[in-house]
Amino acid sequence: MTKIVFIGDSHIHSIKDALISQLHDNVSVGDVSAYRLRKTKNGRQIGDLSLDDSTKLVGRLDSDACVVSMIGGNQHQLTSLIQHPNAFDFFSPDDSSMPNLASEIIPYNQMERFFEELLKRNDVLRMQALRSACRGRMFHLCPPPPKESAEHILGNHETDFAARGILDKGVSPPRLRLKTWLTQVSVLSKLTKQIGVELLPPPPTAITENGFLAELYYAKDATHANQLYGQLILEQVSNAIEGTSNLPQHSANL
Amino acid sequence: MTSHPYKELPDTCFWRRSVASMPPENIDPVIKFKLKIDPSHKVATAGSCFAQHIARHLRNSGFNYYIAENGHPLLSQDVRDQSHYGVFSARYGNVYTARQLLQLFDRAHGDFEPSEPVWRLPNGRVVDPFRPTIEPGGFINEGELLADRRQHLACVKRLFSELDVFVFTLGLTECWRSKADGAVFPICPGVEGGEFDPSRHEFYNQTASDVIKDFRLFATKLREVNPKSEIVITVSPVPLAATARSGMHVLTATTYSKAVLRVAADSIRTKSIRGIHYFPSYEIVTSMATRGRYFAEDLRNVTEEGVSHVMRVFMKHATNSKQKPLSKPPALDETKSDSFLASMQHFVEVECDEIALDKPGSEPSSVPYVSSDADKVSTSIRVRKPRRRR
Known about the structure:
- Helices cover 41% and strands 13% of the residues of chain A.
- Chain A has 10 helices and 9 strands.
- In chain B, helix 4 crosses helix 5 and helix 6 (208-225) crosses helix 7.
């Protein structure tokens, strides 16, 4: 049985919640563990392991074990969730719709370089540290796509977004948020390939026909997905590793 | 001893006294410069490659360097730098000729809309024929290019109406233009995108009277939208990277071109168009007193030492600050030469469109100037759109 270790930031809670729920349901959950990287938020320390400790843990794994990164992922939300005071939009090779020409149009090249800079600054460095220690396969999960519903976002946003003035400034148009996410994913695809990490897209069943996160998979905040999404991820990772559609025999190691 | 007119002339009229016997770095050919710039004045720049040095020094010298087009604030300065925001006061790239400047003004004010279509790159991306290297890798489609051009021209229009001082460096007389409407390109079609088509594109070498006429018209139009504006003209000391005149040596072509521009720069000023000032950066850099040391290894680019000399003289005469004697710039630290060379190389490769005319490995073909495709292709990475829920 392949040992699977998830390591990441806030998005990892969908996995943790999925594993906990399976334990509650008396489902045997085999050799899967999930760790949130430690950090200080609002003056208190959160998370399970430092990056150093995570790297050591990964270094002790056998070569048939698999590491799944859920590091970072919310750069697109910080970029476009809240309406920017200088409204912007952009053309995207992934979206044929016409941008809002009343906004300032940012050339796509610049959006790509913007995300490349953001991702290289922290997330890619951390992924690289894990990749260097990992003897087996390593995946990185795309962050979940944005939520289309502005109503949900305004009613359930995180404190960070409140501090940034989401209620005064409003939520950006869904199409812009989706294009921004697609740009981040496109850049991630290039960067993860460069460091030998396999990029996994979001589970297709969790995505609406317009490309957004389906409401069934919303966590009660503006940006994250829930435990049902985590279950889809477990299934997806299992498929990617073993080529089967069944969940592996998991054991929680939370 | 008889008296004669030379007896009464100041030292600056004599070569031995003010050139041959002077330390080269102290040569100051400015006799009178009426314009005085103070920190509140919005100073804008445009022109050829050399104008970028002037812009850079103005930015770093306490001037109110006016940038009307600076990129979206979301983007870091690094990202904006890579897309050439701030190199000049708006993102027009190199403006080599007076005709190009005049047409830029007209396009910004809706008085001229060239018929030239966008230029396509082999990878499907497109570039703007009037600033072909402004967006590295090209725009992803025509819609994006046109939207960016519309924003750009709005910024140019605002720039011209709000600037106080406009510093323009005349760079070339040789240009390529559209046969359809005379639209002038900064670089020959086919070099940085598009295709050269002899039925649509033609070479033209501007005469002194062309340059004078174009620049006077530009100055007149500028005054119409901005009566208080002042203009500083300089001539770029950077030689031609290539001439399109097959029967002429590039050295001879350079001499012709610079002579035309220098004559024009003097003749542009008339009583009817006030507020045009010539600044002799060309003379400072090309003076034989420096024995060529203000030119880099390639004998084209101007060294930092040369630019500093130009700017010291400029600061001395064009500002209201207390005049300081010209001082020798600090010697170049040899241990930093790599970074210096690297920055120069970056400057040449990224900013100077004209250098593309003679990229290593480029070969002649039916197109007057063609660079290898490998030089201009930027791979676009696309990610598959996630499958949709059925």
